[in-house]
Design a protein that fits this description.
The protein is α/β, with parallel strands linked by helices. It has two domains: about 250 residues, 3-Layer(aba) Sandwich (Aldehyde Dehydrogenase, Chain A, domain 1), CATH 3.40.605; about 190 residues, Aldehyde Dehydrogenase, Chain A, domain 2, CATH 3.40.309. It has a seven-stranded mixed sheet, with helices on both faces. Strands 9-8-7-10-11-21 form a six-stranded mixed sheet, with helices on both faces. It catalyses: an aldehyde + NAD(+) + H2O = a carboxylate + NADH + 2 H(+).
Length: about 500
């Protein structure tokens, strides 16, 4: 007897303007619910033959899409953004099922911010944002530049913000006139074909946006494909290094948005309430599964006791439970593999690093319902009396684990904050804005905040320094990652200056 049907229909590939079953007796894998540990949907894995077909489809579509007037491309993207907003709650529920993030978050952040970026780039190109520049050299000579699309581009997404990341990559890519083959993370794949269908409903021609599903081997074949002009990847540092190396071998353009171990500096004049709120948002939002999380919290020695006291009081405001309940604000980790990894870090912090466990630990949160007993739940955890040499302080955990580090002087805190091979994000909390700007200028990170943490509006270019990435996404600079520049010098003189005139 067949088992009960899965909550979601099978997820196919999508290229040439329609859903496609994987070729050659397709293999499938399953998307697993983080909250229950149960399957959500069967997903078709792409073969090399499927990928070749998708690249061919995208290559064919590029010729007409890149020559479509920017204002026409803009109108299509605007229609897609409107459709996303109309389906916000439906898509948010899907993201909650796939990622384990509470609906209170996915409904307010994931779909909304993705649609924001789509509208931003639609407005940018529709308003002449891809116009080049001119420079007059002399009365009879001038230079002009053109910004031209690259060709077939690959986007490889991370599992923590599936739909948002797909939009962050596809919006500027398509707005600039490129075509895209997008590979969602195999951990959170439900959104892929839905987004492709929304683009098609908005009027995107066949082949312009395509979905390929599968594990890392699928991504590896994509990034090395000779028909691909650019690769944009979001994920962990070690994988990003491999992707960048593969793409560089084919002289492809790359954008890499990788991990971090970001410092949050609380200065001694900061209000304790604000400091605690900022630190909690920087560590426990999305169950700590955010690449920009400020997991190294530097607190002045004289403020440490008051900070920890108020933090412990506010930890009670973190609420697990039914993920569709609007009062729930904390979900499980995304997968069993990741759950084991995060628990390993927590146990290492206790047993090896010998940090002081202020709250939390490796046990599951109290009060988890029977339906969720097999889910990948973890306690929000805080370590204090940490030192810079501890593993939990040095390595990215990507989970709800805060490390409190005390400091005596601001210069010391800045130096310690920068003592990492990564440089994705950093932030400062202080009442002194002049001092804040001075500190931010000294922090080695590509994304920084003052008296805030985590907000990344469409207008803000974001990207890492050092080992945290190459290039930026979003903002006016974000479109530059999806075009190449052609410079032309025009000489209107009657004669060609030459070094080979007769003497």
């Amino acid at each position: 007897m067949a088992g009960d049907p899965l909550p979601y229909p099978p997820r196919l590939l999508y290229y040439d303007g329609k859903p496609q079953e994987g070729s050659s007796s397709p293999k499938t894998f399953q998307s697993i619910s983080p909250s229950t540990g149960k399957p959500l949907a069967d997903v078709h894995t792409a073969t090399h033959q499927d990928i070749d077909a998708a690249v061919a489809s995208a290559s064919k579509a590029f010729q007409s899409w890149s020559s479509t007037p920017a204002i026409e491309r803009s109108r299509i993207l605007h229609r897609a953004a409107l459709r996303l907003r109309e389906r916000n709650d439906e898509l948010a529920e899907m993201e909650t099922a796939d990622t384990g993030k509470p609906f209170s978050e996915t409904s307010a952040v994931d779909v909304v911010t993705g649609a924001d970026v789509l509208e931003y780039f639609a407005n940018l190109v529709g308003g002449g944002g891809l116009n080049g520049e001119t420079a007059v050299l002399r009365d009879d000579a001038w230079v002009y530049t053109r910004k031209e699309a690259l060709g077939v581009c690959v986007g490889i997404g991370a599992w923590n913000y599936p739909l948002q990341i797909a939009l962050w990559k596809s919006a500027p890519c398509l707005a600039a006139g490129n075509t895209m083959i997008y590979k969602p993370s195999e951990v959170t794949p439900l959104h892929g074909t839905i987004l492709a269908e929304i683009y098609a409903e908005a009027g995107l021609p066949p082949g312009v946006f395509n979905i390929i599903q599968g594990p890392g081997s699928v991504g590896a074949y994509l990034t090395s494909h000779p028909g691909v002009a650019k690769v944009s990847f979001t994920g962990q540092v070690s994988t990003g290094q491999k992707v960048a190396a593969s793409a560089a071998g084919g002289m492809k353009y790359v954008t890499m948005e990788l991990g971090g171990k970001s410092p949050l500096l609380i200065l001694d004049d900061c209000d304790v309430e604000r400091a605690v709120d900022g630190a909690m948002m920087a560590n426990f939002f999305s169950t700590g599964q955010v690449c920009t999380n400020g997991t190294r919290v530097f607190v002045p020695e004289k403020m440490k006791d008051a900070f920890e006291k108020r933090l412990l009081e506010k930890m009670g405001f973190i609420r697990t439970g039914d993920l569709l309940d609007p009062n729930t604000n904390f979900g499980p980790l995304v997968s069993q593999v990741h759950h084991e990894k995060v628990l390993g870090f927590i146990k290492h912090g206790i047993e090896v690093d010998k940090a002081t466990l202020l709250t939390g630990g490796p046990e599951k949160p109290e009060g988890i319902k029977e339906a969720y007993k097999n889910g990948f739940w973890v306690n929000p955890t805080v370590f204090t009396n940490c030192t810079d040499s501890m593993k939990i302080v040095q390595e990215e955990i990507f989970g709800p684990v805060m490390c409190i580090l005390s400091y005596s002087t601001l210069d010391e805190a800045i130096a310690r904050a920068n003592d990492t091979p990564l440089g994705l994000a950093a932030g400062v909390f202080t009442e002194n804005l002049n001092l804040a700007h001075s500190v931010i200028a000294q922090l080695q990170a590509g994304i920084t905040w003052v008296n805030s943490w985590g907000e990344s509006p469409a207008e803000m270019s974001v990207g890492g320094w050092k080992g945290s990435g190459v290039g930026v996404e979003n903002g006016r600079r974000g479109i530059e990652a999806w075009v190449r520049n052609k410079s032309t010098l025009v000489d209107m003189g009657k004669a060609v200056p030459t070094a080979f005139a007769k003497i």
